Amino acid sequence: MPAIVLMLRGINLGRYRRIAMPDLRDALTGAGLHDVRTYVQSGNVVARSELRPAAAEELAQRTIERRFDLDVPVVARTHDELAAVVDRNPLRSVATDPKRHQVVFLSAPLAPAIAEHLAALAVEPEAVALEGREVYAWHPHGIARSKLWNGLAGKGLGVTATARNWVTVTTLLGMAREVAA
Prior knowledge:
four-stranded antiparallel beta sheet; 37% helix; 24% strand; alpha+beta; Alpha-Beta Plaits; 2 domains; globular
């Protein structure tokens, strides 16, 4: 059975929208996912499922809404899709600190005007590259004052989006490989 990676947007970032990872694992297992594992508290789930990503997103969103009474956007990638994200990393030559290298996972490709706007927000030495349904971003001085990060993290993208740093992306890929084995 193939591996699926589910990335929840905006949980456990403060006192609100709290979900304990053991409870999330139990809920998703009860909903039909297999070998459910989580990574850190920010809503990273790896499981086995025959569901396509869109169906897995819908299942996770419905399950979270029913069990926790929360409306949480979810973006999913298969093991192979996540492996391709890592393999094609267009910023590998400049992104030297994996904690400051972000990948924003999108539910659908960005509109061209939004993609152009994001590119204009990157201020040297920042870098941004759009590849299909992912935006790769390099924030060498952090995200605190980054206009690029503000553009990526906001709701003005027109699609569901959630970001993970490179450490998390590669860890999730390793977990997906283990689950699929």
